[in-house]
Amino acid sequence: VAGLPLGRIYNFDEIENYIERISRMYPKVATMVKGGHSFEHRPIHYLRISTTDFRDESKPIVYVQSLLHAREWLSQAATLYAIEKLVVNPEEHNLVSDVDWIIMPVANPDGFVYSTFTARSWRKNRAKGYKIGNVCVGVDLNRNYDVNWGTASSSSPCSETFHGRHAFSEPETIVTKKILHKYKGRVEMFLDIHSFGSLILFGYGNGALPPNAFMTNLVAQQMATAIDAVKLRENPAYTVGNSAMLLYPASGCAADYALANGSPLTFTFELPGYKHNGSMAGFLVDPAFVDQAGYETWEGIKIGARYALQSYRKKK
Ligand code: 0X9
Ligand code: ZN
Fold first, then answer.
1. How far apart are CA 81 and CA 302, in angstroms?
2. Where's the active site on this chain (predicted)?
3. Does ipTM exceed 0.95?
4. What is the pTM of this model?
């Protein structure tokens, strides 16, 4: 298809065109699905990648999403690169034939478009009506899921971590909920890709550990090792750990929801930042790093997917 290598960040329309083109050129393995829509009624599309059209329940599903946070542009490199490696240039046949994939490049379309054209550092969605006169807009989608909702987030619509009116008040978070519900018990691995910090986070945002914490930690360590083996020398090594311990407490996260709803291998990735002075620098993207970010993250994703395949089969 030659959609990739990107060598740069794609905007929303380009990503939409890209996944549409993939589904048209590879109809036997890739299907574009509309999971729902955003507050401003943009479609939220994902690609279903499967050699058996998701009908074979003996296969685990690996779910990968990016751009839940609008300004974390580099995260798209992980999902777009994965599509390329699964559909256009597959190298590891098993990962395509024995695993079904859900890949959602833009989990927060309104925020991403707003970050592209209006305010680069926008994080939340673009929900209005929370404050009279729309003084403050947007809900932090990664605080809007129903697990521990409201316990480590803000009730102020002006805050960057505003959790919304109630859990699942936002159409964007309902999309994830519907997908995980539809494929309950099959989504063995759930990856929520963010930036920045070179971290692989696991467990709940309140510090609680996942069901098999020992194995989860081991898988995360192995993913980090695989990424570090091919990372740029000037970038820091990945750090692995519980989200609350390594970063800060958070509630109502996508990862919390996935963990609580049957995805044992749930990880939040924080891709590397852009080294530069100034507080926003970490979200900026060096175009020369986009392909590398996709490539190195894929090295980690593969480790996780192989493990997900084994662990899912053992349960069957
Ligand atoms: O705060 C967040 O939502 C994430 N970090 S970011 O800098 N991308 O905003 C981390 C959320 C991790 N949450 C859980 N693992 N529960
Ligand atoms: Zn984020």
1. 12
2. 270
3. yes
4. 0.97
